[in-house]
Specification:
mainly alpha, about 0% strand
Amino acid sequence: MDIPRIPLGGWIEGGLSWLTSEYSMVTRAISRATQTGINGLNDALMWLPPWALLLIIVAICWKLANTRLAIGAAAGLALIWNLGLWNPMIETLTLVVIATMVAVVIALPVGIAAALSERLYRTLMPVLDFMQTMPAFVYLIPAIPFFGIGSVSAIFATVIFSMPPAIRFTTLGIRQVPKELIEAADAYGATRGQKLVKVQLPLSLPTVMAGINQTIMLALSMVVIAAMIGADGLGSEVWRAIQRLRPGDGFEAGIAVVILAMLLDRLTQSLSKERKS
């Protein structure tokens, strides 16, 4: 006896077709606004001479972290400049910054709500598990019907892929605040909003920053993968090297990605330590 095959793929395709046709005006508006933001940030960063932007980044590293990171940033960025990958690096940085900002703006309120509501927490955790175990390439598929080929689709896929850690860590940080402090705030007559703003959020900030750090790292990895759907940046350099069988060019772009990832990782870690202290 043959068991009928569940047409799951057909249902998903039908749902995507319905969404793209019914909400095309919304997706076009989002696409135009996102592309404007990408172009604006790209133009602003590329307007600066490479040496000037390099000095600004080194100064930020020295101020927020230490001299060691500033020297490492100077050496790494100088290498990227020397390899002729400065503009692709700026394009990748732009996509990461915009995607991270959107992901954090969505994730923080959701994480706070999940921390304060047990029902929402139990509902949200399986959804986050699903989002984090889904292969990264799958997120590129629905992005194309909504926003077409290009950087906007890359932002959409990157936001979805990188958002779960920020939600999880925000929820975890708030839920791990000692109950004694919550009881003390209740004893002094603090409202729910006052407890959140003056007790829970400040104490959970290091954990929240760790979640943002993970979001940035995932966003960077996804932006590189999104070169397959036309995203500009270092990912497109890697993809072009694969297509043309140029391993040297691919390794150069990969090294630039590693330098950018290490720089962003150390900066966010330094911010987290500073907040904690």
